Amino acid sequence: MSVRFRGMRPARPGFTLIEILVVVIILGVVLALAVPSFTGAVNGSRLAGTANELLASLKQARAEAVRRNQRVVVCPTINGTTCATNWSQGWLVFEDANRDDGVSGGEEVISVATPAAGTQVRPSPAISGTHRIRYSPDGFARAANRALLNGTFAVCRPVTQPADNVRDLTLTGGSRTSIQRRAAAGACVDPSDP
């Protein structure tokens, strides 16, 4: 004879509704705290990546000008083969053997780069006047009047996360470069010359 106990059920594996609700609430709080930090980290990474890519292109242009004993130009580009006027679309480094400030037949395009999506690259007046940085065989970038170039690029994102939403890449004395962080309250404006 088998005996059955009323009111006692065998234990079933699983979670109760209350346990699930507690886990969902905890996940919501953690995500609410983590998402702004994650957004700031992603934006900061994109800023640093674009600023470093532009710095690498300038250093490459200088080194190639010396190595080739030839003028090398860095200019904004849209298609990777010709110069344009908007640095935020990208830039290219090319050998300028005929010194016409454009990619001509037989001249090598050394490298092409594009900024991270949503990142703006804004030049100061010394650079935006010609939309070119020309390195001569002596390794110096010069302005149109042959003086050593002093200019700045503001690499920025129009966001408030991170607070320092601008990386100023400064070129002084025709060859010295540096990158500085700057907070601009989410704005992207053209920088001034150093």
Quick description:
This protein has 194 residues and is an alpha+beta fold. Helix content is 29%, strand content 23%. A hairpin with a 3-residue loop joins strand 8 and strand 9.
Question: What does the secondary structure layout of this molecule look like, with pairings?
Answer:
Elements (H helix, E strand, L loop, with lengths): L16 H52 L3 E5 L14 E5 L13 E5 L6 E4 L1 H4 L4 E3 L5 E2 L8 E6 L9 E7 L3 E7 L12
Antiparallel strand pairs: 1-2, 1-5, 2-3, 4-7, 5-6, 7-8, 8-9
Task: Tell me what the structure shows.
The chain starts with 16 loop residues before the first helix and ends in a 12-residue tail after the last strand. It contains 2 helices and 9 strands. It is of the alpha+beta class and 194 residues long. Strand 5 and strand 6 form a beta hairpin. The strands form 2 sheets. It has a 5-stranded antiparallel β-sheet, covered by helices on one side. Strands 4-7-8-9 form a 4-stranded antiparallel β-sheet.
Summary tags:
194 residues; alpha+beta; five-stranded antiparallel beta sheet; four-stranded antiparallel beta sheet; elongated
